[in-house]
Amino acid sequence: MHLTVLDKDTELASTVLASSPRILRIVATVLIALLAATAIWAFATSIDLVVKTTSRVRTATSPLTDFNAASGDALTVAIAGQVASLDVTEGQAVAKDAVLMRLDTRRLDNDIERLRRQVDADSEELRRSAALLDELADQQAKATAKASASIAETEQALRGERERHQLEQQVRQAEQRLLEIDVAKHQDHFDRLAGLVATGVVSRREVASAEFALRTAKSQLEKTRIPDSDASVLMAERRVTTSRSDLDLLIRQMDFRRKELEVQQSRRAAEIDSLRRSMDNLLLDRAQCDVRCPFDGIVSTLRVQVGQVIQPGQPVAFIVDQSGYRIDALVSSADIGQIKPGMPARVKLDAFDYQRFGSLQATVTHVGTDSELTEAGAFYVVRMALEHPGFANGARVKLGMTGLAEITVDRERLLWLVFNRGKKAAGL
């Protein structure tokens, strides 16, 4: 290249030297205007400060803390048993109350049949006992009626004996009163004769005759005073007492037998009730051998195989309830202090191109209270609710999809952000 030195005394040199200050002023003015416009735009423009983190689509009912837990609700069994059949496969849609698997019920069926036969036998014995009680009550009623009739007869005979005895006493008393009058009359006659013996009006023979008549009257009076025997009345009373005692004994015997049968019947009824409760429990266990789906959903995971023995409370499957989804995100311990419930977020799923499908809008609803330790460090699980489980073009999210969640934690002017970062870079 050949360089030529421009002579400053030439006309061309004079022209160039005269126009340079003007160009520099124009360039400087344009640069200043651009810087001012940029500063104004940076001051007027605000940008979102976000925390970017890994996210995953979960069901609304999934555990709140475990980010890597199996999706869906764990389905457990209430009884121990051996898996006889599996009626579903992983990924299959199932309806509410659909049978997922069946446990072996042969032992339960045998026990239920044995208890049913025992209940039937005891129930038959209980019916026979009730019939025997009815028969005993009928016998007691008949025997009581018969004994009561016999007592009535003996009481009637007793009343007759007492009336006869009373009548005999009345007759005896009347005879006694007549004999007393007769004795008094003989006594008076004897006394008069005895007083006349000394005068010779009467003979001693007449006095002796009067005395003999007096003694005879007194002897007859003494006989009437001897108490008569009431043996017939006593016999009648004994018969009444015996009849009543026999009736009381019969009633006690019948009552004892009846109470004995009632105790046996009560014991048998209690045994039947216990057997029926045991059978009801076995029938409940039998019904629980058909493991059913508690709601409409999809089988996400099966944890058992045919022939496997399972224990009560053991998870056998995970069922996904498709009534709603949420987003779970792992936030590092360095950023978790900025996250609060109610903060908005954008979710970009790996399965959908962001340029084509855009992002999903979500809101933070729960911030984990404890961290999970992973190989990459300590992270907290943040739960976010989706505003809509699909994109504008109709594409819908699926369970387990992963992506990037951008949680908006603050909003700041671009000018102050550049200024603050410049200060940090400069170490000020």
Task: Describe the structure concisely.
With 428 residues, the protein is α+β, with helices and mostly antiparallel strands. It has six helices and 15 strands.
Structure description:
This protein folds into three domains: 48-60 and 324-425, Efflux pump adaptor protein, beta barrel domain (Elongation Factor Tu (Ef-tu), domain 3), CATH 2.40.30.170; 73-96 and 294-317, RNA polymerase II/Efflux pump adaptor protein, barrel-sandwich hybrid domain (OB fold (Dihydrolipoamide Acetyltransferase, E2P), Beta Barrel); 108-282. 52% of the residues lie in helices and 22% in strands. It has helices at 11-44, 106-196, 204-225, 231-288, 354-357, 414-426; strands spanning 46-59, 73-76, 81-86, 93-94, 99-103, 290-292, 297-302, 309-310, 315-320, 325-332, 344-349, 360-367, 372-374, 377-386, 402-413. The strands form three sheets. A six-stranded antiparallel β-barrel has the order 1-10-14-12-11-15. It has a four-stranded antiparallel sheet with strand order 2-9-7-4, with no helix packed on it. Helix 2 runs antiparallel to helix 4. The radius of gyration is 63 Å and the shape is rod-shaped.
Give the total of domains. Answer: 3
**Series of H and E elements:** HEEEEEHHHEEEEEEHEEEEH
General shape = rod-shaped
Percentage of residues in helical conformation = 40-55%
User: How many β strands by DSSP?
Assistant: 15
Largest sheet: 6 strands, antiparallel, barrel
SS class: alpha+beta
Strand order of the largest sheet: 1-10-14-12-11-15
Uncertain segments are none
Q: What's the mean pLDDT score?
A: 80
Q: Between the first and last Cα atoms, what is the distance in angstroms?
A: 49 Å
Instruction: Output the radius of gyration.
Output: 63 Å
Strand content: 15-25%
User: What is the count of DSSP helices, taking H or I runs of 4+ residues?
Assistant: 6
